[in-house]
Amino acid sequence: MTDQVPSGLHTDREIRQQPRLWRELAVTLDTRREELAAFLRPWMEDATARVVLTGAGTSAYAGQVLAPWLSRRLQRRVEAIATTDLVAAPHEHLSPDVPTLLVSFARSGQSPESVAATELAEQVLTRVGHLIITCNPDGHLARAHERAEGSFVLVMPEGSNDQSFAMTSSFTSMTLAALVALGGPQEVEAVAAAADDLLARRGEIEAVVAARPERVVYLGSGALLGLAEESALKLLELTAGQVVAWAESSLGFRHGPKAILTPRTLVVVYLSNDPYTRRYDLDIVTELVAQLGPEQVLVVDADDRGSDAPQGTRVGLVGTAGLPDPCWGLAGVLVAQLVGQACSLDLGLVPDNPFPTGEVNRVVRGVTVHPLTG
């Protein structure tokens, strides 16, 4: 399948560039460490403050990956709320008297909801701060906040503003930036090295698509549920919806969603590094292997030893045992990106633009932001 990837494809280049961008991002974060710490300190020292992670589409899933782990790490309210929800119903999601740090993720910063969410927060909240994490320094969101009091704009490395339809390196770069900024130092080099190794073995992953699955299910627990959601979206986007995708938690899958399984369904399970949570992930792997067969269950595991997960087709990420799930998961999500691209090519589509007639667009169009009154 690798040999079939057309030269000059933005999607493939942007998948492959991620380890390099993460290493560049680590340098940027180190350079701006004191400045960023000074901005965050009042929010981290205020025990009443709430942290809201927001974005639309893939950018919203960055928050879903991070919120469970950051809540535990910071011992405070950290919630993932999509900009699409904030803009549609601000009074349901914003508490006026609760100090709130709004962390906004945006690839281009040009989506109507991106700026609107920050403006509504200013309108509704008594005290609000803005950490803007974006890949486009010239986007509306970055420009609106670059000199604003109470705002900090963190721009991702050059090249992260993906030119392809689906977000890949922009998603992982922004998620990693927030993980380090809010959660403290992470093993960036270990994750980048694991991704390098995975890309060198990409043929193993692409071979799974040779069976031409008609449906793909992604399962994960805790932070990895957000990763599963992003993985499913990637497949829907890159195949223009021709391959059905679903995401669920390992425990939740039995409660109805399991009805999606067919003899031609591929299930991808992200195994948690948390020993307790991992037991539930392994239980569903055992059940699915018995039902579908090992060739239709792809296990993505941070533990490169894999001693407790011999079942299914396994992709181990070397050198990431013991890392927090949202950290090693950034290398693990490359599996879904490669699966999505391979399925797209297999269908005869162009991954850079799977919707050539414009039904779905790289930057959302057609949104009218209505004024908030009352």
From TrEMBL:
One of its GO terms (biological process) is carbohydrate derivative metabolic process. Gene3D superfamilies: Glucose-6-phosphate isomerase like protein, domain 1 (3.40.50.10490). PROSITE patterns: SIS. Residues 40-201, 205-354 form the SIS domain. InterPro entries: GatZ_KbaZ_carbometab, GlmS/AgaS_SIS, SIS_dom, SIS_dom_sf. Signal peptide: none annotated. Keywords: Repeat. Pfam families: SIS. SUPFAM superfamilies: SIS domain. GO terms for cellular component: plasma membrane. PANTHER family: D-GALACTOSAMINE-6-PHOSPHATE DEAMINASE AGAS-RELATED, N-ACETYLGALACTOSAMINE PERMEASE II COMPONENT-RELATED. This is SIS domain-containing protein. The lineage of its organism: Bacteria, Bacillati, Actinomycetota, Actinomycetes, Propionibacteriales.
